[in-house]
Amino acid sequence: MPHSAARPVPAAKGIVPAHVAIIMDGNGRWARQRGLPRLEGHRRGVEAVRTATLAARELGIRILTLYAFSVENWNRPKAEVGGLMGLLEFYLKQELKTFVKDRVRLRTIGRIEELPAGVQKHLRKTIAETAHFTDYTLVLALNYGARTEVVDAARAYAAALAAGQEKLNDRSWATFSRYLGTADLPDPDLIIRTSGETRLSNFLLLQGAYAELVFTPRLWPDFTKADLAAACAEYASRERRFGLTSDQLKSAPTPTP
Ligand code: FPP
Predict the structure, then answer these.
(1) Catalytic residue annotation
(2) pLDDT tens for residues 102-153?
(3) Is the distance from the beta carbon of residue 87 to the nearest atom of ligand 1 less than 6 Å?
(4) Could you read off the pLDDT of 234-243 as tens digits, one per residue?
(5) What is the pTM of this model?
(6) Ligand 1: distance of its center to the CA of 218 in Å?
(7) What angle in degrees, to the nearest 10, is found between the helix axes of 117-130 and 78-102?
């Protein structure tokens, strides 16, 4: 059920989701409501990225994944795509110092090799210089789509089978999932989408199989620490059953899929 973004809800005690993933939506509407160009909405969206990165850490979240650019976003007007890539490069250049100061490890998922060379260069540098931080990870989903991720994983898995590195009779998810972009990351516990839309739009479709979903009407540039805390509180109020019954859960520790 969507929660009210206006309702003040304290952060849940004890049951903080370890991995939160956010579909950042509503930059365009935020700008239109103010008679501003769409790119201004994205610029304010970058500010909200900074706010959320800090807020997640303060709330005790260990991994924050942000859907920053989808494979489908290339089909937007050329000027908007160029503007988004420019913002991304500027953000990476500016943020490196803060990441190092705040001990934030940067990671990416998606077909990074198809991004502009300048963006790739700053991504490589930031990832390398923050790789040793262990407490908190920011994952940017860039040129990401769950379907392309599965295609890439299936190709890599097929190559490993052909090379004899995997066995055809091993039909486990644990093995196959090692070929996804998220190989060394736990599944998201909570997926949030802003702007009132209630769909997943090709985001973490496999990894989110057991994630709790929270939809908030807040437009992304207006998303605050209180909104993140409210979503975490909503998460804490849910019973995650992973296919078991409620009674089974009462007599056993939390299962994992
Ligand atoms: C969705 O809003 C947002 C995007 C497609 C891009 C998200 C990008 C940012 C938040 C800024 C860049 C990110 C980083 C990490 C530097 P929309 O444009 O679809 O909004 P609308 O649905 O209201 O039109």
Answers:
(1) 25, 73
(2) 999 999 999 999 999 999 999 999 999 999 999 999 999 999 999 999 999 9
(3) yes
(4) 999 998 888 8
(5) 0.92
(6) 13
(7) 20
